[in-house]
Design a protein that fits this description.
single chain, alpha+beta, five-stranded antiparallel β-sheet, 12 helices, 28% helix, globular
Length: 417
Amino acid sequence: MKIAVIGKGGREHALVETLANSPCKPEIYSFPGSDAILRIAQPIDAHDLESLISWMKGNGIDLCVAGEESYLVTGEGLANLCAEAGIPCWGPVKESAQLEASKEFSKEFLIRHGIPTAKAQIASDYDEAKFKIGGTYPTVLKFDGLAAGKGVAVCPDETSADEFLKEVFLDKRFGPGRLLIEECLVGPEISIFGAIVDDRYMILCPARDYKRLGDGDIGPNTGGMGAVASRQLADPALLETIERTIVAPTVAGLRKDGLPYRGFLYFGLMLTQDGPKIIEYNCRFGDPECEAVMPLLRGDLASFCLAGAKGEFKPELISFDEGWSVCCILASKGYPATSHSGDLISGLGDITEARIYHCGTKLDADGNYLTNGGRVLAVVAQGATLDEARKRAHTETSKITFDGAQRRTDIAYRCFE
């Protein structure tokens, strides 16, 4: 089996490693990949979607796995082009990927199908947004399009809301787009992942990520500063409620709306006093949750994804350990407002009890890894207990240094609040 994994970050590094370790022993290729990924996978000679499809056809690729969300909605859409070329793709077509690409589309879908979610209004400009916020705080502001996990702001007061509104409408930080103004839900968050094949699905290992930059959930939102994953994060009763009120209605809604779906679907949930409510969908695996979940996966992920991409649902091919997995992110100087590249990373060779997934690194001429982006590394450790996993993850993460490194020291110490 020949598999092409599309993307270049820590999530794709984790997927590439897990797919490569599948019992069927597939050949793995990657576009655009990274220096670390290309130590496992072979490079794909392409520069855009069209040349990527051409390369995959010419090289007999059996399965395309979508990692990064942007490729699903760029141009005609990765999965759409794969379908035209006869290449099975584990990832939804462009029309279905609007669940992530457009917050407005997603909200309308949720309301139409009676899926529990926060109340929301739409604003097209700064003044309209100010009017619709109406002095009610805290409020949640969401940019309508893709924003690499940074297009959402939880604003406790008028000052913070004004800052984000200026970023969206005046500075155009995320490009053109409208804004959702949502009620602020309260409760612990949980990430649920579904593997969907048309009208069939299975729920994978639950996780929780940590969006804020600093310890104690303070500072700006990021793409994620760490994650914890375990089947024990959600008890059977909670999972049954989530499946009945959110996952199953979502799958049924996709079918009813004529939106084909084969791939991972992320459900970002808030566990409110009124029950679980959905905050957002992602039409791929979460990041950094993927880095935490993949080490717990057992079985043949490659064969599972290939079967699913062909419309065959084979949940018996994969399962998950009962233990715990903790992921700690190391970010570069200035993140998330900016990022810093070229700083020498030390200590990678000292890691003995954790996996390292490269989110944003590059090799120099001497074979040393340098920083090359906002989130730099994901250090991931497992344990039979939560305490064992988190102690191991934090101990190993502390061994790695580079100029301006940022990390949280409380990842997985706040799991159920």
